[in-house]
Specification:
Blueprint: E1 9-14, E2 17-22, H1 55-59, E3 79-80, H2 83-96, E4 100-104, H3 108-120, E5 125-129, H4 131-138, H5 148-168, E6 171-176, H6 184-201, E7 208-211, H7 218-233, E8 238-243, E9 247-250, E10 253-255, H8 267-277, E11 284-288, E12 293-294, H9 307-320, E13 333-335, H10 343-351, E14 354-359, H11 361-377, E15 386-388, E16 391-395, H12 397-400, H13 402-423
Parallel strand pairs: 3-6, 4-5, 4-14, 5-6, 6-7, 7-8, 8-11, 9-12, 13-14
Antiparallel strand pairs: 1-2, 9-10, 15-16
Helix pairs in contact: 3-5, 3-13, 4-5, 5-6, 7-8, 8-9, 11-13
């Protein structure tokens, strides 16, 4: 769908003053970081707004150089975009025929590579955490009973993204990935964190969350999503729901043996989701299945059918009649299992309303490939602390310093993401032009390696 101002209103509590704002007209995080001016919904009345600040203001770090973008809606700003700013960005993607890459991250290094790639491509990006990735971010030595580590890890990652996205000058949507029924307490913890963040900042900590109940009966899937959408929309969080099963294996979930018919959603099912969620809020996207598979497989083993998406759009348009949106794409779709997909399939799906494509397997490989190539290049310098081809007493510290191989991994990931941005037609979107070369960076002259 195109998120519109007619969506369900949200009652937002800030300090002692309650103020009310439509979930998709929140204006949260405006480009100039001025006080947010809510718009009234037909069911509510706007009251006192809460002043907005940047993360740089909060932490006392250097102010970001950018405040807005020449080619994007005025609400879209450097840093994490939530509420109306996020909505405007997603609508801009649909209206202009591109999709935003959504990259799973498990470390601060991976996050930094994403931010660097987004600025290099002059484009927005979606950074997302899975439950397992969140737990890893917190550290595998931390107990995860009741998802404590996964909650803490995702929140820690969120603050890292918020702190540095402004500095890179990149518009980011901060998302969490697949959350099956058994993982709902993890999302509950993150929504609670966003509730607390909202009380002092006027926006949620995260931008959006995915709830994946595709293995449950469709009626249960929809009912639980309705409950979460009602809760989330109140503070400007967007819900991504899954309909149909994404095949393959990811983050400990193995769907390699799923029935083939479950890999393809039906127009009637997508319409059912649309009809039941829209009365609550239009702040939702649908990860409909059209043969998607997690992972990378040999050609011919995965059969994508993007036309399922356009058939669903047409079916819903027919149901809506005169109320159908101008662009005839009432549903905003998400493309799961994007790694290894052909450019033709990707772009066809975008033409049918896909605004977000998930990338994980390909960036996992690129990160490893950077390390692998670094080890191969400097192998003889990485076997002992002292002694290399230049001499038996020569130290190797600058080679085995973990920053060196990690930076090589980041560089390779930035290169791989450039291909993803190009495939998704998501380049030169912000209107900033080429990024300036980073200055005062430790290099070979100071003893570092040229990676």
């Amino acid at each position: 769908m195109k998120f519109a101002s007619s969506a369900a209103a949200a009652l937002l509590l800030a300090s002692a003053n309650a103020f009310v704002v439509p979930s998709v007209q929140s204006g949260l995080g405006a480009a100039n970081t001025a006080a947010f001016r809510p718009r009234a919904d037909v069911r509510t009345a706007a009251r006192t707004p809460l002043a907005m600040t940047t993360v740089a203001d909060d932490l006392g770090i250097p102010e970001p150089k950018l405040q807005s973008y020449p080619n994007l809606p005025a609400s879209v700003h450097p840093g994490v975009n939530t509420g109306q700013a996020m909505v405007d960005l997603l609508n801009h993607a649909k209206e202009n025929g591109y999709a935003i890459p959504a990259v799973n991250c498990v470390s601060s290094s991976g996050i930094n590579a994403c931010l660097e790639a987004a600025r290099k491509n002059d484009a927005p990006i979606i950074i997302q955490f899975s439950s397992g990735g969140s737990q890893f971010y917190a550290g595998k030595g931390l107990d995860n009973t009741d998802f404590r580590a996964a909650i803490a890890g995702a929140v820690s990652g969120a603050f890292h993204v918020r702190t540095l996205a402004e500095q890179y000058g990149v518009p980011v949507i901060l998302h969490t990935d697949h959350c099956a029924k058994k993982l709902l307490p993890w999302i509950d913890g993150l929504i609670a964190a966003s509730d607390r963040y909202f009380e002092s900042h006027g926006e949620p900590l995260f931008s959006s969350h995915m709830i994946d109940l595709s293995e449950e009966p469709i009626e249960e899937n929809i009912e639980i999503c309705k409950d979460y959408l009602g809760r989330m929309a109140k503070i400007g969080l967007l819900l991504e729901m899954e309909l149909g099963i994404t095949g393959g294996e990811e983050d400990g979930v193995d769907n390699t043996d799923v029935a083939q018919e479950d890999l393809y959603s039906k127009p009637e099912e997508i319409n059912q989701v649309y009809e039941e969620l829209m009365p609550i809020s239009d702040m939702f996207t649908v990860a409909a299945a059209f043969g998607n598979v997690h992972g990378v497989y040999s050609p011919g083993n995965v059969k994508l059918e993007p036309k399922i998406l356009t058939r669903a759009q047409a079916y819903i348009n027919e149901k809506l009649g005169d109320k159908a949106p101008e662009g005839k794409k009432p549903v905003s779709f998400v493309f799961h299992g994007g790694s290894g997909s052909s450019v033709d399939d990707i772009r066809e799906a975008i033409d049918y309303g896909v605004i977000k494509m998930n990338i994980d397997t390909d960036t996992q490989w690129s990160y490893w490939e950077g390390i692998k190539e670094f080890e191969s290049k400097y192998h003889d310098y990485l076997q002992t602390q002292i002694g290399n081809p230049e001499g038996a007493d020569k130290p190797n510290k600058k080679y085995y310093d973990p920053r060196e191989c990690m930076r090589a991994a980041e560089v390779k990931t930035v290169e791989r993401l450039e291909q993803s941005f190009a495939d998704l037609r998501c380049q030169q979107i912000c209107g900033l032009g080429d990024a300036d070369e980073a200055e005062n960076v430790l290099g070979p002259r100071r003893g570092g390696l040229p990676v």
